[in-house]
Specification:
Number of helices: 7
Structural class: alpha/beta
CATH topology: Rossmann fold
Number of strands: 8
Strand content: 15-25%
CATH superfamily: Response regulator
Radius of gyration: 17 Å
Strand order of the largest sheet: 2-3-1-4-5-6-7-8
CATH class: Alpha Beta
């Protein structure tokens, strides 16, 4: 009986530890969509773009998403007219983020410090959680599963000085 209980507990721990990773299994799709979306900015970036990946180290799901995004970017990920490289940034250190062309905000890491830092530096913020854009914390949210969906916050875009090309605006949902 004790062995069955131990086996069950071990299986439960393994399953629970894998859940955050499964939730971000499509990080590669999301980051490619984010990179291509950057190319639709008026006077947007081209060539090599450093994508800051903002995460909250106290939230396992945020850390798991950061790990998945960084793995998807690897040593460089071509997406449209840009090649993304990643730089992990703790949410509390977002105000010191230097040399980044955009910030990918992981789920749960879109606190006031991140939003303030991005607005002050006029940095585009992108998240995979639609609530990041609908709340105005991110300029846009991207998702590639089950279909491509891009949501843009008008207020966050205006605060960051982001203007999107007309062709892009036909493909997105603005809030």
């Amino acid at each position: 009986m004790l062995n069955k209980t131990k086996s069950g507990a071990i299986a439960l721990i393994i399953a629970a530890s894998m859940t955050p990773l499964a939730a971000h299994a499509d990080a590669a799709k999301d980051i490619v969509i984010a990179g291509r979306a950057l190319t639709f900015l008026e006077n947007g970036p081209t060539g090599k773009v450093v994508m800051g990946v903002v995460f909250d180290p106290s939230k396992p799901a945020s850390v798991a998403e950061k790990n998945a995004v960084m793995a998807a970017i690897g040593g460089g990920l071509a997406a449209g007219g840009v090649t993304l490289t990643g730089k992990a940034i703790e949410a509390g250190d977002a105000s010191g983020a230097a040399g980044v062309g955009a910030l990918f905000v992981t789920t749960g890491a879109n606190g006031g410090a991140v939003v303030s830092a991005a607005k002050a530096k006029k940095i585009i913020t992108i998240g995979s959680d639609v609530s990041c854009a609908t709340s105005g914390a991110c300029v846009m949210s991207v998702s590639g599963d089950p279909k491509v969906e891009i949501v843009v916050s008008r207020s966050a875009a205006a605060a960051a000085g982001a203007v999107f090309k007309a062709a892009f605006r036909m493909m997105i949902r603005e809030v």
